[in-house]
Specification:
Layout (H helix, E strand, L loop, with lengths): L28 H10 L10 H25 L11 H5 L3 H9 L1 H14 L11 H15 L3 H5 L9 H26 L14
Helix pairs in contact: 1-2, 2-4, 6-8
Length: 199
Amino acid sequence: MSLPPPQPSPAQQPPGPAPLDQPQYGATIGQAASRFWKKFAVFSGRASRSEYWWWVLISVAVSVVLQVIGTLTIGGGFTAPRTDLREALVPLVPSLIWSLVVLVPSVALTVRRLHDTNRSGWWYLLALPSLAGAALQLVALGSMDVERLAAGDLAGGIAVGPLVASLVLTLLGLVGSIVVLVFLILGPDPRGARFDRRR
């Protein structure tokens, strides 16, 4: 088994855009956005901290703008009363569509960022229990009966099993997410070049 040729460290990277098969250290916000879309479903290789965090900023900003637009246009404004869970979720539709559009490339970018710290992308699965917990919370909240709540039943007929399971999974996912976040914050490790695609 031959080792890949040594790659330039962040300090040795030549000025200008890096080839797409290499991380762009010191990426600008425009470079980060461009590289995100050009490497839409590329799970091999590495991504620098600047590539990753600039995209996180862009994605969160777009999501917030879409939530505000959805609330003002679909949801009737910020002061409109929300009595039903479905009614509260409808204004989030534009933001949810955005999240679905960027789901695969965001996972790919996170995997490449983990590679830059010399960690396998499989570490990202530590955050997965949170998603399962959120789904179970929706199931539990969907079983709530508004009439029973109005009659004084504090639980409102909510399904306790899915609620407890969702809380446990959410807690596990929170711990896993913190571990992954620490990895994403760490600097590059040149040994991460082992994750680059072999030519």
